[in-house]
Amino acid sequence: MRYKRKYFEQQISKEVELLEKESRFSMTRDFIQHGEVSVFVHCVCVAYLSCCIMRFFNIKANLGALILGALLHDYFLYDWHDGELCRKVHGFTHPFKACNNAKEDINLSPLEENIIKRHMFPLVPIPPRYRESWIVCLADKICACEETFIGHCKGKKMEFAEKMFEKGKITSD
Ligand SMILES: [Fe+2]
Ligand SMILES: [Fe+2]
């Protein structure tokens, strides 16, 4: 099924709202990922781009798992720029930390776990098992490159992520 952009925007928005109520997801607002982009905005951008990739290539995928896995792929919940010695291996260890944190808060399917744990392939040299995990792995690389080289993600995904960021701020005030 080829989803309309509006439909997956609604699904991401619903999932973010649910996670902000039922998990520690709002903590990702306070941590920086790359450049000046928060982990929250990065994860929403990765979820958005994952949906775009699925749609563009007409890939049959589990949309709910794709969105949830993408939103939680960097759910490590610490500042990885804080200079602590253990941060030197952040690139290798954070997918597992993210998965453990997520499992403390909500139930994950094996597919969602795989999306989170394998998103750092090939740095963590175990390849993703499912097509959803490959999509998130690719979307994460694209977003990370944009954030590192131009300071933020480009286009509609960034506009959407910033809107989500502002919306959550208003409801939590
Ligand atoms: Fe990551
Ligand atoms: Fe990421």
Any overview of this molecule?
This protein is 62% helix and 0% strand. It contains 7 helices and no strands. α1 crosses α3 (63-72), α2 packs antiparallel against α3 and α3 (63-72) packs across α6 (131-150). The mean pLDDT is 94. The protein has 173 residues and is an all-alpha fold. The protein has helices spanning 5-22, 39-56, 63-72, 90-105, 110-117, 131-150, 155-172. It has one domain (5-168). The chain binds fe (ii) ion (2 copies).
List keywords for this structure.
173 residues, mainly alpha, 7 helices, binds fe (ii) ion
Helix and strand arrangement:
Layout: H1 5-22, H2 39-56, H3 63-72, H4 90-105, H5 110-117, H6 131-150, H7 155-172
Helix pairs in contact: 1-2, 1-3, 2-3, 2-6, 2-7, 3-5, 3-6, 5-6
The chain binds fe (ii) ion (2 copies).
In short:
With 173 residues, the protein is an all-alpha fold.
Bound compounds: fe (ii) ion
The total tally of domains equals 1
In which range does the helix fraction lie?
Answer: 55-70%
Strand content: under 5%
Q: How would the global form be characterised? A: globular
Mean pLDDT across residues = 94
Radius of gyration using CA atoms only = 15 Å
Number of strands: 0
